[in-house]
């Protein structure tokens, strides 16, 4: 042993130990108060407002000035901790005689006691009883706030000025920072996290990423008869249809089904073309938040997406944009559509136009699995073209990252059906 134990315990040492114990309890009270007051949820606050007790009123008064409350807790806690360190050192020196490592033993022992009984245990206890603890300590904290007001006021004013200067230099938060913050969030449901992620990524996505491709656009030709137009409307179920002349690249306008309702009984010679409204065109690389602003200001719900040459690339609606934030929106007219068919545990048939993200979700694979090879491709068919760098024929096979792709059906040169085999699971 490096020290000799002092067997006697004078009354003065016992008194100091009692004072030290009271100070540790005071430190625990401050730590518990900090955790309790600043962990109250909006629901807890509503419950306190509905209560008529003096303790609830005291809690609300303290939280009315949270900066002063926090400053009071910090001032009192630091003063108490300093007193504990000084008193504990005196007690240890009275009871023990050290020959070496005196400073190290003092630091380790006192720090351990402060952390365990003054910080960790109180905050663990508060997690399940924050309202009760806040009510219990509210009245003493009001007295301490009054006593420590000068020091707390100086602390709040100084920290406020420093905070304002730091905020001025660091006010810009990048989209990447927000996305990382959302990814690290563990509270809330999965749906809430999806909505938060959608909001964060909203401004960074281009309309090209969410549009309905031109091959899936349902449109009417300007030369169609009224009866043919009505049949297209009945089959599609859409409330707005693009109108083109000769080619889908030559969009003349938009036909609103509600404009046809009063003319529904008219004959086949009715000139429905007089009801065509001006089309709304959007470049394919425009951000979806800008398109949403245009929809709101111009009071439109559908836009035709064109490339730099003016050729039609797709179509986007207000519902498509909102779904980027809140997820899939279905109404009573929507028909459940399956874009894949499972053959066995590791074999699937997908439509070629299926988005890569949807495929990865179905296969339970990492969202960034094909990031290094997909280029600008958004669909499985586009991914195969990126991998092959040439047109594919029925029966052609490709493999990437342990996933095998087989073309099973074509529509002209377009890949219609693709068999996907998870080689890693075989």
Mean pLDDT equals 79
Helix content, binned percent: 40-55%
Structural class: alpha+beta
Number of strands: 14
Describe this structure in words.
- Helices cover 51% and strands 17% of the residues.
- The two termini are 65 Å apart.
- A five-stranded antiparallel sheet has the order 10-11-14-13-12, covered by helices on one side. It has a four-stranded mixed sheet with strand order 3-9-8-7. A three-stranded mixed sheet has the order 4-5-6.
- It has helices at 11-37, 42-50, 54-64, 66-95, 102-126, 130-147, 149-169, 175-184, 190-202, 226-236, 257-260, 288-298, 318-326, 356-363, 380-388; strands at 3-5, 96-98, 212-213, 220-221, 240-245, 247-256, 281-283, 302-306, 312-317, 340-344, 347-351, 397-400, 403-411, 414-422.
- It folds into three domains: 3-169, no CATH class; 207-326, CBS-domain (Roll), CATH 3.10.580.10; 340-425, 2-Layer Sandwich (Uridine Diphospho-n-acetylenolpyruvylglucosamine Reductase, domain 3), CATH 3.30.465.
- It is elongated and about 110 Å long.
- It contains 15 helices and 14 strands.
- It is an alpha+beta fold.
How would the blueprint of this fold be written?
Elements lengths: L2 E3 L5 H27 L4 H9 L3 H11 L1 H30 E3 L3 H25 L3 H18 L1 H21 L5 H10 L5 H13 L9 E2 L6 E2 L4 H11 L3 E6 L1 E10 H4 L20 E3 L4 H11 L3 E5 L5 E6 H9 L13 E5 L2 E5 L4 H8 L16 H9 L8 E4 L2 E9 L2 E9 L4
Parallel strand pairs: 4-5, 7-8
Antiparallel strand pairs: 1-2, 3-9, 5-6, 8-9, 10-11, 11-14, 12-13, 13-14
Helix pairs in contact: 1-4, 1-5, 1-6, 3-6, 4-5, 4-7, 8-9
